[in-house]
Amino acid sequence: MPDLTTRPGTATRLRTASRLLLSTGVRPSRLLLDVTPLRDSPAFRRLWLGQGLSQIGGQMTVFAVALQVYQLTGSSAAVGLLGLAVAGPVVLFAAVGGSLGDTLDRRRLVLVTSSLQTGVSVLFAVQAFAGLRSPGVLYLLVALQSLVGSVNAPARRAFTPRLLPRDRLAAAAALNALTMQVGAVAGPACAGLVAAAWGLKACYLLDALSFGAALYGVARLPAMPPQGGAAARKLAGVGEAVALVRSRGELAGAFLADLCIALVASPAALLPAICAERFGGRPQELGLLVAAGAVGGVLASACSGPAGRVGRPGRAALICCAAYGVAVAAFALTDGLTAALLCLAVAGAADTLAVVFHSTVVQLSTPDRLRGRIGAVEFVVGIGGTQLGRLRGGTLGALLGTSTAVLGGGLAAVAATALVAAAAPAFTRYRAEPAERADTAETTQTAQTAGPTRAAGT
C-alpha cells in the first residue's frame, strides 16, 4: 500500500476534499446507514438480526422451489404459477391477518405463525428427502407458507413503532430494507452453492434452521397488545382501516407510490428474455442482471443516513419512483452489459429508498390500534402489486417485444408518479417531524411501555 505521508499532493487533495464536505455541512459519517436504532434498542437489534438471517433462509427456499419445479416440469409457465400460489393467499387472507394483529397480542401471534412457517420449511425438506417429485405438493406448500405469512407480516410490521421513538422510524425502515436486499443477494448465492454441494434438501433445512433466530428475537420482546386498552374480544373489522386510508391522503399516496414501481415498471419478468436477446442468454449474465437491482439496494441502504433527516418523505418517495422509471427506461435502451447492470443498480437503489420513505409515512400516520390492518393493506399492495407486475411485464413483452415493454413500463412509472403527486397532495406535503403527533395519548403510552423494557435490556 502506498504511503500517503510521502505523497504531499495526494494528502493535500484529501484535506481539500474533506474541507469542502465540511464547508457544505455534510459529514461523510452522516451519509452512512444510521445504526442508532440498533444501538439504542436491544429488542429491535435482536428482532432485526433474527429477521435478517431468516430473510436469507427464505430466499434460499424461493430459489430451491423455483429450481425444483423447473427440474420436474421443464416449464417456465409452471415456475410462473408459483407467483399465483403466493399472491392468492395474500389477497384472500391478509385482511384477516391484519384484523388478528389488531385484536390479539401481536408478539404471541407472530410466535405462533413463525413456528408454523418453520414447520412448513421442514415439510419442504421432507418432500425433498422423500423424493416425491410432485409439483402439486410444492404449490400447496408455497400457498400454505404464503397464507401463514399473510397473518404474520401485518402483526410483525407493528413491532418497530412500539420499540423505537418516532424520529428513529426512518432509520429503522432503512435497516429493514437492508436486510431484504442482503437476503435477495446472499440467499440465491448461498442456495446455488448449497444446492450444488448437497442438493435442494439442504437449502430447505437451512431455511428451517434460520427461523430459530427469528423466533428468538420475537420471544424476547415484551407483550404487544394493541394500544388503547385491552385486546378486543371480537375480531377487528377492516372498515375502520379503509376509512383511515380514504381520510388520510398521505396513506393513500404511500400505497399508490408503491404501485408505481411494483405494478407499473418492474422488468423482473423480462430479464431472462432480455438476457437471451442481448447478452447471449448464459446463466452467468442472467444472474448478474437479477442481482444488480439488489446490489443497488444494498448500496442505497448503506448510504441512507440522510434519509432519516428528510423533512418530507412523501415527496422524496415520489422522486425515487420517478428515478426508478427513468433508470428502467434507460435500461431498455442499453446494449452493453455494464451499462445495463448500472441502470438496474440505480433502479434498485431508487426502489429501496422509495420503500424507506413511504414506509416511514405509513408508520408515522397510523395509530397503533390500526397498525395490523394497515400493515395488511401494505402487505397486499407490495406482494400483490409485485406479482401482478410480473404478469403485466410478461404479457406486454409477448405482445409488444421485450424492449418496448420495458421502455413503456419505465415511462409509465414517471407518468404514474406525476399522477400520484396530483391525486394525493397530502402525501407530497407530509412532514415527518419528531414533534408531530397523530395521537398524543398513544405516544405517551408507547414510551411508558417500551422505554423501561429497552432500558432493562430485553
Summary keywords:
2 domains; 79% helix; 458 residues; Growth Hormone, Chain: A; disordered C terminus; mainly alpha; disordered N terminus; 20 helices
Structure description:
The structure is a single chain. Helix content is 79%, strand content 0%. It has 2 domains: 41-221, MFS general substrate transporter like domains (Growth Hormone, Chain: A, Up-down Bundle); 237-438, MFS general substrate transporter like domains (Growth Hormone, Chain: A). It is built from 20 helices and no strands. The protein is mainly α and 458 residues long. The model is unreliable at 1-8, 20-26, 229-233 and 434-458 (pLDDT under 50).
How much of the sequence is in beta strands?
under 5%
CATH topology of the largest domain: Growth Hormone, Chain: A
Distance between the termini: 45 Å
Radius of gyration: 22 Å
Architecture blueprint of SSEs:
Elements lengths: L7 H16 L4 H4 L4 H5 L1 H32 L2 H26 L4 H25 L4 H23 L1 H5 L5 H30 L1 H20 L19 H9 L1 H14 L8 H8 L4 H20 L10 H21 L3 H29 L5 H30 L1 H22 L1 H5 L10 H16 L3
In short, what is this structure?
This protein is mainly alpha-helical. It is 79% helix and 0% strand.
